Amino acid sequence: MAGLNPTFVEIETPDTRSLLDQARAGDAEAFGEICRVHGTRLLRQAVALCGNVTLAEDLAQDTLVEAWKSLHRYNGRCQFFTWLCAILLNRYRNALRKNRLRPASTSGGRDQDEFEKHTSNLADHSALPDQAVERREQAVLVRECVQPLPAKHQQVIHLRFYVDDSLEGIAAALGCSMGTVKSRLFHALEKLRKMNAFSALLSDLKTKGGML
Amino acid sequence: MKPCAQNRKPIVWLALNALDARQARPLRAHLETCESCRRYLAEISNVTERLAEGEANPDIQASEIFHQKVAGKLRAAKPESLGEILAAYLRGSLLRWRAPLPAIAALVVVGVILATWRQPPVVFLSPKAATQTALASGADNDPAPTIANYQRVANQSLDKLDALLTRQGNRALPSMPIYTASTLALAKQSF
Lengths: 212, 191
Description:
heterodimer; A: mainly alpha; B: 191 residues; 10 helices
């Protein structure tokens, strides 16, 4: 279980804080440095959502640009990366509504080939232990199970489990109360518990656990 | 067996480590004695453990081209102007009011309907006026005031003749001149 961060405390490192102060004063170069710090993590989150590296790169870049434009709205009550991810999730949801994107689970064919090619360039799968490959496949399956949930439930699951911020931080990033976040998490987990696909994943886990 | 209804949410929050010690202590004590709640906690914990496995692929790295593109877009973009900030604030306010807006609109519509809808006014008549109104109600169908017509109505019923004469008398009352001794003298002089 993930530990809780202290409530409403500036969690960024002194360097990041200093860069944020400069960026707030209008220094684009300072914000560029922040983007270098968070770019890779943000891109990973975008790829996990889209399943398509090209679209994910666009999504992550647009997220960073939107963050720069609306930097005055960041109040330091959550991790800066959590705030970035909240923007990313909103942009992703809007893109889905406009049919510009498809969820990662439905992006097969050429997109999936491209994704595989890209990741294989980054790391040689054959060099990875079987367990690592299996873990990656499991991650994709888990993400597929989360895709049918309503957007507001996906958001809290994503921020809690993959960005790993406190409930207070998630509430601050989403602009809602902590009670709302807790309620959404409860309903999201309840739906996943009742979901057949997720139950199958759980039974698969138990079987493997028994074999080991 | 289902878990205790009042404990479902706290159990989920316990699995998320989102309960403080004061809240968690009595729940843990309950879990020791309630098997269905214990099973529910195990199921939710399995879900959370599974979810934690969905982490993003750590092999993906943002390339130098990615960072250059971001830098280029940042140079082209400008922070929001005051107008944009205000528009975003208003948009946010509207979104917050999105749920109650239909209810408010419905209330306004009902209010407008109630304000414009008028019931026919209820007029309380004195007994005399009520009698006159009742007598006058058949005035439109009355025959012309001729001797022949009066004879015809009298042949049917004397009561009908009485009612007809009363109606016509009441109807003609305002337009009929009222003769007094002085007015008759004046009328005589004019002739």
